[in-house]
Amino acid sequence: MKKPFAIILLATLFSCQQSVTRVAPDTQIDLSGRWNDSDSRLVADKMISELMASERFKEYAKEKGRKPAIVVGLIRNKTSEHIDSDTYIKKLEVAIYNSNVAEVVESEEFRDKLRLERAQQQDFADPATVAQWGKEIGANLMLFGEMTSETDTSNKKRVVNYITTLYLTDIETGKRVWYGQQEIKKFVKNG
């Protein structure tokens, strides 16, 4: 009686062992069919490439006579899924920064932290090394947008169409310099 129990216990233990494998961060892995890191990276790279290649953006940069400074604002998630917009915003900032066609200005939250540090330096740092006030680069443009989704289900099948729309607007004039849209459609079939 004890041997079969031990065999069953060992079989159960081996079947419950967790397996972890390291993979390259850019490896596309879809487990649930929901929005994931691959979707964020794909859409961010595509949209920023389109933005930087657009004739209107190039004309704007030419009028300014220098690389435009862009701040990435709010990207609203209007899908039914929880999508961490901070991660998505960071991917957009990385794509803009790596494009070398525009400057990235820190977000409002991070600028506040920098200003606090600058204020503290006025009292506590060596005067020769103190960061000066009034030297920040003002953003010319703000990038913002929204993510939406349309879902259709039937039996054990689901189709989700994710739509990301981004707007790039001149902060001084309110004029829209560029806007683009990317869609990712997923078909999920459960066993």
What does this 3D model show about the protein?
- With 191 residues, this protein is an alpha/beta fold.
- It has one domain: ABC-type transport auxiliary lipoprotein component (Rossmann fold, 3-Layer(aba) Sandwich), CATH 3.40.50.10610.
- The protein is built from five helices and five strands; from the N terminus they run αααβαβαβββ.
- The chain has helices at residues 2-15, 37-53, 55-64, 85-99, 108-124, and strands at residues 69-77, 103-105, 141-154, 157-170, 176-189.
- It has a five-stranded mixed beta sheet with strand order 2-1-3-4-5.
- α4 (85-99) links the parallel β1 and β2 (103-105).
- α2 (37-53) runs parallel beside α4.
- The two termini are 38 Å apart.
- The mean pLDDT is 90.
- GO terms for molecular function: enzyme regulator activity.
List keywords for this structure.
191 residues; alpha/beta; Rossmann fold; five-stranded mixed β-sheet; 28% strand; flat
Q: How far apart are the termini?
A: 38 Å
Strand content bin: 25-35%
Stretches where pLDDT is under 50 for at least 5 consecutive residues are none
Q: What is the fold named in CATH at topology level?
A: Rossmann fold
Q: Helix and strand string, N-terminal first? A: HHHEHEHEEE
- How many domain modules? 1
CATH architecture: 3-Layer(aba) Sandwich
Please, what is the average pLDDT?
90
Secondary structure: number of strands: 5
Largest sheet: 5 strands, mixed
Instruction: Please give the CATH class.
Output: Alpha Beta
Strand order of the largest sheet: 2-1-3-4-5
CATH superfamily grouping: ABC-type transport auxiliary lipoprotein component
What class would the helix/strand composition place it in? alpha/beta
GO molecular function: enzyme regulator activity
Protein name: Penicillin-binding protein activator LpoB
InterPro entries: LpoB
Organism: Chryseolinea soli
